[in-house]
Design a protein that fits this description.
The chain is α/β, with parallel strands linked by helices and about 270 residues long. It has nine helices and twelve strands. The protein has an eight-stranded mixed sheet, with helices on both faces. Strands 6-7-9-8 form a four-stranded antiparallel sheet, with helices on one face. β2 (about 45), α2 and β3 (about 70) form a beta-alpha-beta unit. The longest helix has 16 residues, at about 190-205. The chain starts with 7 loop residues before the first strand and ends with a helix. The relative contact order is 0.18.
Length: about 270
């Protein structure tokens, strides 16, 4: 079992995990966020959200200056103090957003797939879809290496679409509410592993890792960390892990930030 007395690092999904998926509130997690900050335990946000959106969220949560993982791992924003790192300030894996958007438009025009991307709509529409503030909605459109979409076609067409993307070196990833297209070279697992390695290089010791997530796109993150919290989510398929054992995985009864708190209570609260 991990303890607060050992060197730890947390990697957490955002929407549906640390943030309530309907209200975007995070207050049930506030006590743990403060305690982790006091213990100097890094809390790394790991989300499908854009880096610009997550940097604002970092400030709201009191996590500024830490690294973050954006766009499902396609973008890693480095810690402020890592200015000597060759990748500073951002490491971007694979194809840029404009290339991905061009591929999506071509596939939609040539094969008639039905979907709506964030690039297709205005900021007020994203506010209606998500419950975000207008400020966050504007930042949610600033993709650098992926695209977010709502799928509006059949399951059969989705399989065709996913195969077409794979043949072009892209992956189709399901989040808590939306679908995401990014380069196959990206992904939450590779981003988590990259940051774990960087922390060990810089600090000279290995931190024990805890991952928290609620959606199918969090599975690779949760399989990568030493311990995991599967927060109760809305997705009908749940989160399927390759290493789902009680020794390393806890499934919460609560959802959103209340589930996030429940998971940390399970792993880290004193007996």
């Amino acid at each position: 079992m991990p303890t607060l007395q050992q060197p730890l690092i947390l990697f957490t999904d955002v929407e549906g995990t640390l943030l309530d998926i309907h209200t975007q509130e995070w207050q049930p997690a506030s006590d743990w966020l403060l305690r982790l900050k006091q213990q100097q335990i890094p809390v790394i946000l790991c989300s499908s959200k854009t880096a610009a959106e997550m940097m604002l969220l970092q400030k709201e949560l009191g996590l500024e200056a830490l690294p973050l993982i954006a766009e499902n791992g396609a973008v890693i924003h480095l810690a402020d103090e890592w200015q000597d790192d060759e990748a500073f300030p951002r490491l971007i894996s694979g194809s840029p957003h404009e290339e991905i958007r061009h591929v999506l438009n071509q596939l939609r025009d040539s094969d008639g797939y039905k979907f709506t991307t964030f690039s297709d709509v205005s900021e007020p529409t994203i506010v209606d879809w998500t419950g975000m503030t207008p400020r966050h909605a504007a930042l949610a459109k600033l993709h650098e290496a992926s695209e977010t979409l709502i799928w509006r076609d059949s399951d059969e067409k989705m399989l065709e679409f996913s195969a077409a993307l794979a043949s072009l070196g892209l992956q189709f990833v399901q989040g808590a509410r939306f679908w995401h297209v990014l380069d196959e070279r990206g992904g939450k697992a590779q981003a988590v592993n990259w940051l774990l390695h960087r922390y060990q290089q810089r600090e000279g010791f290995r931190r024990t890792s805890i991952g928290l997530g609620d959606g199918p796109n969090d599975a690779s993150l949760l399989d990568t960390t030493d311990y995991a919290v599967v927060v109760k989510g809305l997705n009908r398929d749940g989160v399927r892990l390759s290493r789902d054992t009680p020794e390393r995985v806890y499934h919460t009864r609560e959802s959103g930030p209340a589930g996030w708190r429940e998971g940390l209570d399970y792993w880290l609260a004193p007996p």
